[in-house]
Amino acid sequence: MPTPPPPNDADPKDGPAPTVGLPQYGTWSGRFAEPMSERMQRFNASIRFDQRLAAVDIAGSRAHARMLAGAGILSKTDLEAIERGLAAISGEIERGEFAWKLADEDVHLAIEKRLTELVGDAGKRLHTARSRNDQVATDVRLWLRGEIDALSAQIKALRRALLDLADRHADAIMPGFTHLQGAQPVTFGHYLMAYDAMLARDMERFADCRRRVNRLPLGSAALAGTSFPIDREAVARELGFEGLAPNSIDAVSDRDFAIEFEAAAALVAVHLSRFAEELVLWSTPRFGFITLADRFCTGSSIMPQKKNPDVPELVRGKSARVIGALTTLLVLMKAQPLAYNKDNQEDKEPLFDTVDTLADTLAIMTDLVATGLAANVDRMRDAAREGFATATDLADYLVSKGLPFRDAHEAVARAVREAESRHCDLAELPLPDLRGFSPLIDADVFDVLTLEGSVRSRDHPGGTSPRQVRAAIAAARASLA
Ligand code: ARG
């Protein structure tokens, strides 16, 4: 049999690698007649990665102990010992002195064991009226609540950077695309505000999901509740939960809140990936709409001329991990019988990876948008001029002179064909030639055939006119204040 890999072959984002040894502590081993093999320990343990729940686990334990004491289930002396012990453990973990051991299985048992070492029997009383099933559900919710807040703040920062860039380019004309074919002129500011609109929805989704994350499972114990006279409301208040998970069986088994978060996170990742894709396209010499600062790019080891847009490419690529994590959690849950099953231990790594990936992605995109993206406005304008982008404006002009839209469409299509054969833009066709397509065309047509006239005329909420773009920026800024 090949030897299993050492426990710390893992992600450096996990805490210190747990040391290996046979379980000595009898948390649940009283019923068992034989020790665990090292292979079984490795397979069973979550301590390598769930260490990151330590701070919330301690907060949850403190609140639980206070409630037990308040309800007369735990003595005042025991509570004092527990609080003292938990504070000491916090310090040990913060200073990197805590001994994480594979044999302790998970963060919950490791902390409880250390507590008992430090304060004796009081430590053993902490788990009264509690199970790791309601404990872990509480920990994940507490942790995720904090991460949702941190990610929302990061989205805000990215939006602020986008708004600043949009403000500087509220008048800059570029071609807007459908089917990736030049369609109609828009402003670069309007384009950027499309991403702001997506990120605004992302913030709403996080806020909405947070409300369902923020329910207290503790008190459900293993699955059926507890015979002790507990006060769940008091624990909820102390931990800042907005309410109680209403059913003990559901509470220990439910991971909907994590799936909702993953779905919202996947959308953030998809939005950033779409934006990244445009940055990749626009920074190619063929488009040349933007220049990315060198520090967001890399060179090629063989082609000296290359400057590759690695940051947007990685942002696009990393969305795959987040989308995958959503699928992982859905599949993890789909056939589980009620209530808690050990399968649920597998919820953590995808969740942690999603949070890490999104945090990194948002941070670097904010940096790039704020400091590393130069718009080549002349190139954008030239591209908008090239593609008959004002053809719709000409059709609208004819409609405003009384021609039915379908006839106007036909007349303009013929004009476009003519301009195409002459390799010129619509605005470069002489008036007499334009009149050949419709006698309704007069000299004032050139007002609508200009790019500036075209964008200025789309002057309603949501439209691309610089005035509307500035109004949208102002509204977004106010919503972020
Ligand atoms: N490490 C476990 C998890 O992450 C904690 C809960 C264990 N519960 C149990 N009944 N074995 O889900």
Structure description:
This protein has 481 residues and is mainly α. It has three domains: 36-125, Fumarase C, Chain B, domain 1 (Orthogonal Bundle), CATH 1.10.275.10; 132-165 and 186-232 and 239-378, Up-down Bundle (Fumarase C, Chain A, domain 2), CATH 1.20.200.10; 382-480, Orthogonal Bundle (Ribonucleotide Reductase Protein R1, domain 1), CATH 1.10.40. The chain is 60% helix and 5% strand. It contains 20 helices and six strands. The strands form three sheets. It has a two-stranded antiparallel ribbon. Strands 3-4 form a two-stranded parallel sheet. Strands 5-6 form a two-stranded antiparallel sheet. Strand 3 (215-216), helix 9 (232-239) and strand 4 (243-244) form a beta-alpha-beta unit. Helix 15 (391-400) crosses helix 16 (405-421). The chain starts with 37 loop residues before the first helix and ends with a helix. The chain binds arginine.
In short:
The chain is mainly alpha-helical. 60% of the residues lie in helices and 5% in strands.
Indicate the multimeric state: single chain
Span between termini: 61 Å
Q: How many domains make up the 3D coordinates?
A: 3
> Which range best describes the helical content: under 10%, 10-25%, 25-40%, 40-55%, 55-70% or over 70%?
55-70%
- Average of per-residue pLDDT values: 94
- In N-to-C order, the SSE pattern is HHHHHHHEEHEHEHHEHHEHHHHHHH
Secondary structure tally: strands:
6
Strand arrangement, major sheet: 1-2
Overall 3D geometry? Answer: elongated
The value of Rg in angstroms is: 30 Å
Query: Do you know the CATH topology of the largest domain?
Result: Fumarase C, Chain A, domain 2
- CATH 4th-level superfamily of the largest domain: Fumarase/aspartase (Central domain)
Largest sheet: 2 strands, antiparallel
At the first level of CATH, what is the class of the largest domain?
Answer: Mainly Alpha
How much of the sequence is in beta strands?
under 5%
Poorly predicted runs are 1-9
| CATH architecture name of the largest domain | Up-down Bundle
Number of helices: 20
What binds here, in terms of ligands, is: arginine
Structural class: mainly alpha
